[in-house]
Every structure is written in structure tokens, then in C-alpha cells.
């Protein structure tokens, strides 16, 4: 940022032009030098080539001592050439030998000021003023040096006194400089404006106005006023950088839609490209080039060119440390690139560079930035400590200076919302719902609170309740982007396909490259993909009379992308084989059908060709369910040549037709129960009725671990006993079990988990008594980018069949792929 304290050397250049003009007339003609030659050297020095005249003085000094006038000329010219060290050397050599005229002392005072030797500079200025009290340049330099030396009261007193004695733009500009040196930018702006109004063409007033505008971050007008500066001038370059940085800051200002921010960011990038192209050949512009590249990162991040921004940051950081403001941009880029570990480490290096305590107190924006980086990085312990500390130091009400009454504290609300997000991230959804509902009910005028509450309801599998909350939130601002995104997610859950498309299309049109929008678009795109489903079972060691030895089962289906939103066509192939006492059983199915989905409904119709035993027959299936609300669902199916017919029955040319019905009660992700009943009529005359009750009760939840109680009760009744397949007259099973899931790795939409199941229960069979049932299972599952979901589980169980305990070891697998 350009400072009002401009380069002192540049000020010397501007002011010494007048002295050199005078020197061209006043330089005495030396007895040992030709007057015309000396005048030519002076004219050449005035044109910018000072070396010949300086060499002349050095040569003369070697021959004899210089006169006071010569020493003054030498001091002026070396100062004008920005050769501060030579100026000081000449001053130190001759100050006690000759009485140096005022113009030479003025040059020395300026050089001492350049070197920030304030007291020495003030001493020289005061000597000049004693000799020439009316010397305006000396008085100006003296007051400016007082300001530089932080003798604020004295500098302001002298400047205002002179301004009152001799009003004019030069005095107003001096007052502006004094104010600016004290950090009083608005006072400086007022004084500089008065100087500018008094004489718009006054160079001192104009130069001061440029600096004050830049200090107040009014960079565009400052750049326009600097038209007298060359494009290669360092001051002009800094003003160009300030103006471009102002465009970058404007790109971060909230707008009606993302496209407007992109337009501003593109303007900034175009300007930086022009500046970098113009400055690259300039050897003295390297620092400005680095700053331009650094500030340009902000525009790249706004424009979602995150990979390019990260590459530029890493290149700059390899050369020298990058400023903290640019690191914040890169932290955002890392999060957008799904690299939360790097984002958190970068923010920690900014806020906590030396230890557990922050270098400076964090602003609310800094707190939220670091908190969400930790949440995305799943550093939950640090996130909880941070949010607890933030809430502790953010009371509900706070005192505002000058107000006799306590005022609501925005930081308190930020802390409460952060706590809600922590509960969601750590899978503590009951706490998240309680917290979010309390905030939404007590802050009904805050749309964001109601949207957050709806998102928690959706995460708990309650989309209809979420839909109601979003409708209430819609009253406040119907076009809110976050509201529309959440409504689109809920519409997808409710199978409101047209509504989901309309909402998603609007969000994409308004914020096409926003990370949240890209995620929503991805979910919608996945829904519109084709789908492959595969599941199967491979026996390893089995004595079961139901599945046989060396049993293998695979079921597969391929679904088309949605047709007219509600329909999908599918085809599938099923295969099963197993070895029994009477021989090997094989079943092959080739199926085709259609799926229909709509709000609250799902149905599937299938026609299949089944090859088993000694023949091939045509089968069919009709399945469906209906949701009454978020909690209750009823469903069922009817089949000709049921897929649930035991393979051993098919091996012996016995088929079955059947149907089933079920009712499911779902409270939330932690509790649900299902009651089912099924009936089958076998071609050998046997009628079977099966029933079951299963459920889930969450026992323990941690961010990466869940433990569920899974009770299961089932039984069956058959009308015939003497058949060629396992067919107990009546049986009953009860197996309470536990199911644990542990997250091994998780990064956004990529999740790798392991599962462990165990159960011990009892099996009763008519005429054979009761026996123990034991079950164990271990498996792993991978979910990737919403398009791959696959798992593998090794199972072991031991249970009685007809009074004899049999052991079964098998591998179960399933895979769901969208493409």
C-alpha cells in the first residue's frame, strides 16, 4: 500500500531541481577552471548526468581545498544524484573547515532525514532557519522531519501556525503530511483536499493528495492524479498495484450472484497481466512484480482457478515468505481442492506461529475459517476446544462504548452456529438437532438458522420435516442461494425430480463455480447416471442343507439413466449353484423390467426367464412401497417363480409362487424397526408362511465409530414336512446382535470403513428342540465420489438344522456403480 511518507530520495529529486536551476546561475567561476566548461558541466548535471560534475569536484579536491561555495555546490549535486553516502562524506570533511552556505546545509539535512537520523537532521534544519528565517524550503523540511521523528504535537503546532500565517495549498499539503505521519488519514485527506481545491495544478498539493488517497485506500483516484509520473516510476508502480488490489478486494464483496464477482475478478486478472508484461523487463521492478503476483492470487481464487493459485503460491513461497493475507486465500484454495490438512496447517502458521497462543487475537472471520478447516480435516478435538473457547469469551450480550444498554453479541450467535456444525460433523445428530432447533425457534427472523435446522433434519432421514422448515424460511428471502441448494437436496430425497432440476439449474446459473453448487450439481448428475448393481455370496465351508456345499450366488442388474424423470429400464442376470446329496443344483435367471419413482412411491415390474432343474419357465415380479410420512412405510411384492425359492427345491423341480408385505417404522438414523410377513405356495403342494421382526438401536456414537444393537426375530410354518428340501414344520429364531462400524479413512466423499457383527441367540424347531445360534462377521466397505459403493464381508455362523449343528463360512459381497 502506497504510504503518504513518500520516498525521501524522490522528494529530494523534485525539490533540488529548483536549487540546481539556481546553482546554474550562482556557481562561481573558478580561477583554475574555465567558466564555459564549468557551465557546461552544470547544464549536463541538470539534464540528469551528474557524474562528470561530481568527478570534477573530486579532481579539484585532490589538487586543493575547495571553497565554501564549491562545497555547497558539491553537496547539492550529490544529493540531487541520490548519492547520500557521498553527501555525508563531503559534509563530514568540510563542516568544520568552511562556512557552508544554506543551500548546502539544506541538502545535508535532507540526506540525514533520508537516513532517519532525525535529531542530526533537525539540528541542521534549525541552523539554516537561524541564518535564513524566511527560507520556506528549510521550514518545510524542518516540520516534516519533526513529523517523521514522531514529535507529533510540535510538528502539528508548527504546521498549523504556518498555515494560519500564510494560507495556501503548500501549507495545507504540509499539514496533510503531518496528519498522515500520525496515522490520522481522514484528517490528512481533509487537509489535502483543501490544498487540491486551492490550486489543482500545484505539484506539492497534487503529490500530497495522491499519497493521502492511497493511504485511505482510494486507489483509483490516486492513480488518476499521478498522470505526471512516468510508467517506470516506483511510486507509479505502487499506485498501480494499489488500484489493482482494490479491484481484488471488490471481487470479495458479496454480490447478487457469482457471475458479478467473476466479472470483477477477470478485470483484476487482465490488469495484472498487463502490469506484469510491462514490468518484467525492468530490473528495479522485481519487488513490485512479486507483489503483483501475490495479489493476483486473490483474483485466481475468486475465479476458482485454485490449482493455478496454489502453484503460484508455492513458487513464491519457495523464494521468500508470502504475506499472511495471501496465505488465507490459499487456505481457501486448498479447501476447494479438498486438501484440508494443508489448509489447516497454513492457517495455524498464520494464527499460531510460535505456540499454543495466537500471535494476535483472532477476528470472528479468522475463527470460523480455522474452525471449518479443522472440521474438514476431521481434527475434531481441536475444533471442539476452539469452539468452546470462542463461546466462553462471547457472551450473549455485550457492552458497546457510548451505549448505556447491553446489545446482542453477533459473536455469540457465530459460536452457537459453529457448535451446531461441530455436532453435525461428529455425527452427534441428536445434539445437532436440539441445538439447531433452539436457534431456529428463538431466532425466527434469521433465515440461515432455519436452513441449518432443515439440513440437520435431512441428515437424520426426515426430509418432509426439513421441507416444511425450508418453506417457512422461504418467506424471508425466496431466492437465497443456500436456501435453494438445501431445497434441491430435500427434493432429491423426496423423489421430486422436476423440482430438484429447477432448483439446481437456478443455483448453477447464479453460482456456477461455487463449491457448494458444484457438490449439488454432482449429486444431481449422479442421479441421472446409469447404475450397475451386483451382490453375491460365496460359500467357503458349509454343511447347510439350505444352500449346499461350495455354494455360489450372484445377482446383477443394470439400470438405464432416468427416462422422463420417473422411469428407468433395467435388465439383470442371476445365478446360483450348490452341491447337495442328490446332486448339483443350478439356477439361472435373465430378467428385464422397469422402475418407476415419484414422491412417496416406488414400484418395479419385472419379467424373467428362469432356467433350473429340468426346464425353463417365465416368471414375473411386482414390487413397491409407499411412504405415509418420514416415519412410516408400507411395501410388498408378488412373484411368479419366486426368487426366494430354495435352490434345493429348484434342483428337484419344485418351484414356488409367493408374495410378501412389510411395514417399517423409522424414527431417525438411530432407531428403526420393520415387521414382515411372506407367503409361498410350492408346486409340490407345500404352503409356507414366514414372518420376521428386525430393528436397530444405536448404543454408542463417536465421530469415527458407531455401535448398534440389532435384534432379529423370525419364524416359519410349513404345511408339509416330507419334501426334498429343508422344510421344518415350524421353527422360530431369535438372535440379538451387535454391529460396529469404524471409519478407517474419510476425505469428503471418499469413505473407507470396517464392520464387525456378532450375535448369539436361539433356534427352535418343532420335534427337534432348541439350539444355540452364533454369528460373527467382519467386512470392509469403500464409498467413492458418490459413484462407487462396494463391500466385502466374511461371515461365520453355527446353528442347528433338524437337531444337528452345522457350520457355515462364506464371503458376501456387493457393488453399486454409477456410470
TrEMBL record:
It comes from Silvania confinis. Keywords: Signal. One of its GO terms (molecular function) is poly-beta-1,6-N-acetyl-D-glucosamine transmembrane transporter activity. SUPFAM superfamilies: TPR-like. The keyword Signal applies. Residues 526-819 form the PgaA membrane beta barrel domain. It holds the Pfam family PgaA_barrel. Residues 1-33 form the signal peptide. This is Poly-beta-1,6 N-acetyl-D-glucosamine export porin PgaA. The lineage of its organism: Bacteria, Pseudomonadati, Pseudomonadota, Gammaproteobacteria, Enterobacterales. Transmembrane segments: none annotated.
